[in-house]
């Protein structure tokens, strides 16, 4: 099975940015310890409240995605999101050819 790239994106409420960043850092540490995958956090160039977590080279995407959901729930992450936003998770693989 080819490695998978996992992208999680959402909008953060500005007043929750510090707590959200701490939660993401904890998740990154847990993912690295369990899967050996180093997560990276990006924010929108023109919209700093738009965040994206990136996990590359994932060999067990189902397990990692389940862990991400558990971590988000345990940290209260939905409470950090901007009104009307939700956390979306997408998977990508290299295009053939």
Could you characterize the architecture of this molecule?
With 97 residues, the chain is an alpha+beta fold. It has one domain: 2-Layer Sandwich (Alpha-Beta Plaits), CATH 3.30.70. It has helices at 17-35, 61-75; strands at 4-11, 39-43, 50-58, 88-92. The chain has a four-stranded antiparallel beta sheet. Helix 1 (17-35) packs antiparallel against helix 2. The mean pLDDT is 96.
Keywords:
four-stranded antiparallel sheet, Alpha-Beta Plaits, 97 residues, 28% strand, alpha+beta, 2 helices, single chain
Spatial strand order of the main sheet: 2-3-1-4
- Outline: globular
Assigned CATH class: Alpha Beta
Report, as a whole number of angstroms, the end-to-end distance.
16 Å
Find the CATH topology: Alpha-Beta Plaits
Rg over CA atoms, rounded to whole Å, is 13 Å
User: In what range is the share of β-strand residues?
Assistant: 25-35%
Helix fraction? 25-40%
The structural class is alpha+beta
Largest sheet: 4 strands, antiparallel
**Number of domain modules:** 1
Quick check: average pLDDT? 96
